[in-house]
Design a protein that fits this description.
Helices cover about 25% and strands about 35% of the residues of chain A. Chain A is α+β, with helices and mostly antiparallel strands. In chain A, strand 17 and strand 18 form a beta hairpin. Chain B is about 75% helix and about 0% strand. Chain B is globular and about 70 Å long. By secondary structure, chain B is mainly alpha-helical. The two termini of chain B are about 25 Å apart. The chains are: A alpha+beta, B mainly alpha. The interface of A and B includes residues 80, 105, 135 and 149 of A.
């Protein structure tokens, strides 16, 4: 295979003076589950709609197996899509909805019936053939929509926040269903969501959208462990940011000063141009160590304990630095360091510089 | 299906019943008015049709037995059907366009539609007479374009009546249709398109079925209004294609035959009610009158 399965090349979309998508390029492997993650207005849905053919990009191209899709109208693109809103045809039964794509392709009655049956099994809705969409719950409707979108074996399935109208429990249930269906059908899925948990739970890779560009593409753990930008760090997982001064840097890592006198050497650096020496240190709450007494050997930052919250397997410790920045720490329940800890105590924070990041 | 829809109708209606006033008190003025000026006249009409000139069904026998009168009935239905179908064919694209148009444009089109509705009916009908006559602007334009050699006869015949009535009826089809099409989620049509449906297939398999209740409501209104229409057929139609309302007017005004006039009016009423019942049966109560 020379060309990647699906290629998005330098897509840009302007609405008058507003730029919805600035410059998006991405390569998607066959059978991959890739999620567009980002806040609303970050351009993720617009990119998806361009893929579907509902909108034309101002610039750029989309290639499926090396061939441009842009001149193909959406009804000939052979792409499946599940929408955010319920889009089943209300005047048709479940079976007729699932069979609709085959019917407009003039397939035989027998072929349609067989496929509808297979699809209903896939989404586990056997026996619902003759129901109308109005007689089904939101979750069931979205499963039928999924069956309809897969009934013509599209090479690519687009999903635009299909679960956002459902409650949390149902959402998790259908997330598992979608995951299972992805594994069973091996269809390539492009999934849009603003819910990081959903993205982490389902995707092979995640593309983080921010202000019309992709900040970073990677697996969930890559994005969490090695965020390329402060935005990605903030968006994926919990994070603490401490302002710090960059004392020295070699482009890859930096020596920073926290507070008045604590020097930390060799923190991975993500510089976005400019030789500013003010930065933000990213700490993950579960990576921060908490010392009851000032450690002698390594440096540590004194903080005041503001609050302790017991959350089952975890305990959250909210602290404040001497200059007033909050730092949240997460420790496993029963950890020595929290035994007898109370509000107003002073503790010392430590961390491994290699697991932290500086953004400036 | 009928089973399911009746249960769901029950579910929907149950809470609404509590909102109904406990007595008919508040509705009494309207009910009295309706009784005095609608129920009583209709009953007296019915009575006159069977009592004048002598008791019996002779008026109906004459009306339904004569070829002349039957032709008028037939012509009434033909014109009404023609007007309904043409109004639907012209009105559907207009309603659709209005529904997907940017709001500031649709407001202008609506203003034009409503203005034409609010303009005096006689004025509009006379305007059509002027436009459609032998030396009218329509014939002149067609002749100047070289499309015809002789002026077409566009008034005092079926063509004139149809043109004039379609024009008058259009808003009554466009407004309910617009309401129905507006409520269709555009994402449903996008979904149809991605499912592989061409524009034509999306139109016939999705949009038209979803708009059917609006089309039925509008069509029924236009058909029923056309059945009893008087002014336009009287002015733009010819003697050879008289409509029922003209016949009634003739019975009452020229022949002073109240018995025959009442019988004809009553036949019209029965046909109208039958059509309404048919529509209720086909499309249920939810789409009717409620909006």
């Amino acid at each position: 295979m020379t060309a990647p399965f699906l290629q998005i090349r330098g897509i840009r979309k302007d609405y008058g003076k507003v730029t919805a998508v600035q410059d998006v390029s991405l390569e998607i492997r066959r059978g991959e589950f890739l999620t567009f993650l980002g806040p609303s207005g970050s351009g993720k849905s617009t990119t998806l709609y361009i893929l579907a053919g509902f909108q034309d990009p101002t610039a750029g191209d989309i290639l499926l197996e090396g061939r441009s899709l842009l001149s193909t109208p959406s009804h000939l693109r052979q792409i499946g899509m599940v929408f955010q809103r319920y889009t089943l045809f209300p005047h048709l039964t479940v079976a007729e909805n699932i069979g609709f794509p085959l019917k407009v392709r003039r397939k035989s009655r027998a072929e349609i019936d067989a496929k509808v049956k297979q699809m209903l099994e896939l989404v586990r809705l056997e026996g619902f053939e003759d129901r109308r969409p109005s007689e089904m719950s939101g979750g069931q409707q979205q499963r039928v929509a999924l069956a309809r979108a897969l009934s013509y074996d599209p090479p690519v399935l687009l999903m635009d926040e299909p679960l956002s109208a459902l409650d949390k429990k149902l959402r998790e249930e259908i997330q598992h269903e979608i995951r299972r269906i992805h594994q069973e059908t091996e269809v390539t899925i492009l999934y849009v969501t603003h819910d990081q948990e959903e993205a982490l739970r389902m995707s092979d890779r995640i593309a983080v959208f921010s202000k019309g560009v992709i900040d970073q593409v990677g697996t969930g753990s890559e994005l969490y462990a090695e965020p390329a930008t402060r935005f990605v760090a903030e968006f994926i997982g919990d994070s603490d940011f401490l302002s710090c001064a960059v004392v020295a840097s070699n482009g890859q890592s930096a020596d920073i000063r926290l507070g008045d006198d604590w020097l930390v050497e060799g923190v991975p650096l993500h510089a976005r141009g400019g030789g500013r020496n003010e930065g933000a240190l990213l700490l993950r709450p579960e990576r921060v160590q908490l010392h009851r007494n000032q450690p002698a050997a390594t440096g540590a930052l004194p903080v005041r304990v503001d609050d302790l919250t017991f959350l089952g397997s975890n305990v959250h410790v909210a602290t404040t630095t001497g200059w007033g920045e909050p730092v949240a720490i997460r420790l496993p329940f029963g950890h020595d360091a929290i035994d007898g800890l109370s509000r107003g105590d002073t503790v010392w924070l430590g961390f491994d510089p290699r697991t932290a990041h500086v953004f400036c | 299906m009928s089973n399911a829809s009746s249960t769901s109708a029950l579910v929907v209606r149950a809470p609404r019943r509590n909102l109904l006033p406990k007595t008919l008190g508040p509705a009494m003025p309207a009910l009295i008015l309706l009784f005095l000026f609608f129920v009583l006249p209709v009953v007296s009409l019915l009575l006159r049709s069977v009592l004048e000139p002598e008791p019996g069904l002779s008026n109906y026998a004459t009306l339904l037995g004569s070829e002349t009168y039957l032709r008028i009935f037939l012509n009434t239905f033909l014109v009404s059907a023609l007007v309904t179908v043409l109004s639907l064919l012209i009105g559907f694209p207009v309603a659709w366009t209005l529904a997907i148009m940017p709001a500031h444009w649709s407001r202008i089109v609506f203003a034009i539609l409503l203005l034409s509705m609010w303009t005096n009916l006689l004025a509009r009908t006379y305007a059509w007479m002027v436009l459609l006559q032998r030396t009218g602007i329509v014939n002149k334009t067609l002749m100047n374009l070289g499309l015809i050699d002789q002026p077409l006869t566009l008034v005092n015949n079926l063509v004139g009546v149809t043109i004039g009535m379609v024009y008058i009826m259009l808003p009554f089809i466009i407004l309910p249709l617009y309401g129905v099409i507006r409520r269709i989620d555009p994402a449903i049509l996008q979904a149809a398109s991605l499912c592989g449906a061409t524009r034509w297939q999306s139109l016939w398999r999705v949009l038209v079925p979803l708009a059917a209740p609006g089309m039925a409501a509008g069509a029924l209104m236009v058909f029923v209004m056309s059945l009893g229409y008087f002014v336009t057929p009287a002015l733009l139609g010819g003697t050879s294609n008289m409509m029922l309302a003209e016949l009634i007017a003739q019975f009452v005004q020229s022949l002073v035959n109240w018995g025959m006039g009442s019988a004809a009016a009553f036949v019209l009423l029965v046909v109208t009610l039958a059509l309404y019942a048919l529509q209720l049966k086909l499309f249920g109560t939810s789409q009717m009158g409620g909006r």
